[in-house]
Amino acid sequence: MNLRNRAFPWRITCLVLTCLLLAACNRVTLYNELDEQQANQVMAALLGSGVSSEKAPSSSKKGWEVRVNRGDFPYAMQVLNSQGLPHASYRSMGEIFKKEGFVSSAMDERARYMDGLQQEIARTLSRIDGVVEARVHIALPPPDPLGGRDSDSSASVIIFERPGAKLRDRETDLKVFIKDSVEGLADVNKVTIKFFTIAAPGAADQQTNAPIAMSSMGPMALVAVVLAALLGLGIAFRGKLRARLSPAAEAKPPAWSD
To answer: What are the extents of the domains in the chain?
Structure first.
């Protein structure tokens, strides 16, 4: 076997590895620096919708990241947006009022209290079935320095709901809950709730991505698989052809010269 024939398998191997590397580079990151629960929720939603995805440690060494094929990126974002994923990370009142450094001013304490109260109410609303995301804004009147009567508090809430959730039928119950959660909010009419329905992913997009498993692969991944298969067949055919020709070459009688 000459040097050219010996180098042929190595060239094939390098070509296959290059194709596989290009296929791997076809993955793009949807989100990174997620905690494990957020990453698992995103993975469950994508896999349940027929989108091939993978979870790996984040490149920033903080939390996890979720990657999908480049061709699935638009549909994957539609799936996550329709379910409000990844869910926002809420801080508890204890985390917000954790003592650090010097004593906080009254204004700082008030701002932190409002922030914590809004997050607590938003987190509770987000746990209700059919709620994709909730945004809460509370207006607390400043205390009267002369000891007079303070004005009433108020609350404005925006709820993003899933199609068919019918949360508007429970608007009164939601208003009562918010009223009872805010100090100084005695009138339920001071609570405003607006509902918005999140659009579900299109049926055409779902049919394009979900039924066929190969459709979850990007174009470069498909090219790599086809090339690898063709190269494997070529190597096998070349080996069989060489095996057939070798006995014929050995059986040829030597040439005599005068």
So the answer is: 29-87, 118-143+150-197
The overall pTM is greater than 0.85: no
Spatial strand order of the sheet with 131-139 comes to 131-139, 154-161, 191-197
Counts for the chain of helices (H) and strands (E), in that order? 8, 6
CATH topology (fold) of 118-143+150-197: GMP Synthetase; Chain A, domain 3 (3.30.300)
Q: Copy the structure tokens of residue 211.
A: 């039924």
Indicate the DSSP class of residue 147: -
Positions of E strands within the chain: 27-34, 53-57, 64-69, 131-139, 154-161, 191-197
Assess if CATH 3.30.70.1530 describes domain 29-87.
yes
pLDDT by residue, tens only, the chain of 258 residues: 454 555 555 565 556 555 555 555 578 999 999 999 899 999 999 999 999 999 999 988 889 999 999 989 999 999 998 888 888 776 665 565 566 656 667 777 888 888 889 999 999 999 999 999 999 999 988 877 666 556 789 999 999 999 899 999 999 999 999 999 998 899 999 999 999 999 878 654 554 444 434 444 445 555 555 666 666 666 666 666 666 666 555 555 555 555
Sequence-distant (≥ 6) Cβ neighbours of residue 104 within 8 angstroms: 112
d(CA 198, CA 195): 10
